[in-house]
Fold these 2 entries.
Entry 1:
Amino acid sequence: MPLVTGKEVLDKARREGYAVPSFNTNNLEITQAILEVADELRAPVFIQVSDGARKYAGMENLANLVKDMASRTKVPVVLHLDHGADFKMVMQALRAGFTSVMIDASHHPFEENVAETKKVVEAAHAVGVSVEAELGRLQGIEDNIQVSEAEAFLTDPEEAERFVAETGIDYLAIAIGTSHGAYKGKGRPYIDHKRLEEISKRVSIPLVLHGASGVPTWLKEKLLATGAELKEATGIHDEDIKKAIPNGIAKINIDTDLRLAMTLGIREVVMGNPKEFDPRKIIGRGRDYLKQVIREKFELMGTVGRA
Ligand code: G3H
Ligand code: 13P
Ligand code: ZN
């Protein structure tokens, strides 16, 4: 079916108490894995394009690929700009046919973040595209670090309420203890659930969780077995993700776990079969592992059968 807007998918998710994963794509095989599993599980899905993806594969190429492949799937697919850096990048995404954009001005002071975000909301809404913005700075919380130390970076519930009212965004990304990448803390990374509850009481639009990869144990163990140096890698625990969803988290961003899955497949084939030189066999194994990880995410977030 044709692409749908993010607001459509996420308002329903928050109302009904499940979340929709937003997976980063960078190429054909990642896009195939996401859409094949979404279709098979009848699950709505976001496919997002980062700045890095845009530089690697080209924004138009990825947009056209997703649009074309989504037109042949039976589930709602949202094409989303991940961490849009500025107004100009958002305009390029609108032109390329994205149905959801993120403006990330979270590194600016509050008022500047509001001003930049408002500008994007006005333009995107004029052409029917949904907007995500971020308040707070992503920072991991570990067992041995007090939340208060990270407090300055985490989203303030009262500010969140004001930010949503002043900007008119459709969904809000918040900082509650997660962080990007495969190293989310030396102890047990966790989510500040109390803060999330406070935000959820004040903000009724869908909330977005970035940096939500789990670095699944099975994946890490298989990677270590291939000689990958990832001993310190840690992610957000599944029970924290499950607990966050009833408190308004409706969009959950996953990139790192996909990178790990693709890398595992490639390492297994390349290192286990030194004579293999057919890229389809090498990348294909990566795609198989990607599908396994993607399936687990839909199950974890309660997205299965929602489309
Ligand atoms: O939010 C960050 C995502 O993991 C994408 O990162 O710009 O390196 O593709 P990237
Ligand atoms: P991870 O690095 O935890 O997968 O987070 C990805 C993300 O937030 C992209 O916006
Ligand atoms: Zn992010």
Entry 2:
Amino acid sequence: MKSTRVGIVGAGQLGRMLALAGYPLGVRCLFLDRGADTPGAQVAPSLIGDLENPVLLAELASRSDVVTFDWENISGAALEPLENITRVRPPRAALEVSQDRLAEKALFTRLKIPVAAHAAVESRAQLIQAAEKIGLPGVLKTRRLGYDGKGQYVLRAAADIDAAWQAIGGAGLIYEKFQEFSRELSLVGARSASGQTVFYPLSCNTHGGGILRYSIAPFANARLEQRARGYLKRVMTALDYIGVLTIEFFVVQGRLIANEMAPRVHNSGHWTIEGCVTSQFENHLRAVCDMPLGSTRALGHTAMINFLGVMPDRERLLAIDGLAYHDYGKAPRPGRKLGHCTILKRLPKERTKALSNALKLVEWA
Ligand code: AMP
């Protein structure tokens, strides 16, 4: 049978893991990204140039049965012409909503999914008003292009307003109430064009400086899992979604508060490569290529640790039983996601012990 051709906008580690998951399925990926030595280009062919270059995007689309994304911030205007050439999945509307924190919260609210109290901020005066109305502490964020804690400022007291404004002040901001959460959880799921949905077990995520450091999964809480699945399914249905979709939640006094969504495979789902029957990467490809979705059943108890800024001692980590190592092939830079490892164990207590041993070998820079 002829292989299925998938075009991927962006060739970072997510694209790389998609391409690697594609080979056994007979899916061949082609990337578009700026560099010749991106994580994706190391494992599959790549067009080289700007991600919004209309000529290159059209070439990518014409050489693909479906176009999908490693990077979701491509503008709707750049994407629209591709829809006349090939299928674009997930749908453009999903990308557009997720590009704007305010639009995302409006969608969640319309679907009766709880979010933090928030207000749009376009000026310093509006920030003062928002902090008074919503209260302190709070977080000032850029509505667009913020990720991994970038473009965010935590305000503890009214005296922080000036510093916050100096740090990220301008138009296009959102102020939200600081959530005193007990945990951060995320739910990854997939939906196909026929409306088939599958959901992974919940991941419990620990961040440092706004970047994911490690996750443990499955996070066993039947009540929260059922709730989260209901919320994710509502968003998928509302957007007529195709592909993998993730929602990140805060747990505040036992309730889920949605923080944000990602219309793609997610860092907190990397554990599914070794930890589930079908990984998030394979299910994303299956969904966008109209294949039946695969089982999301967990194979044991896992922990995933991100390598940030510096790579750890590979040999010492590999000596831990049940550990899988992933190097994204990137040059080290402070705060940059360079790789991850996943530990798979039969019992939670074995996982916890191996996680604590592995954490001693990983430093975040
Ligand atoms: P985000 O870019 O919105 O995913 O934020 C990155 C991280 O910053 C989150 O995972 C939280 O750890 C923290 N954070 C963001 N928004 C809030 C909030 N409203 N209250 C408390 N912590 C937050």
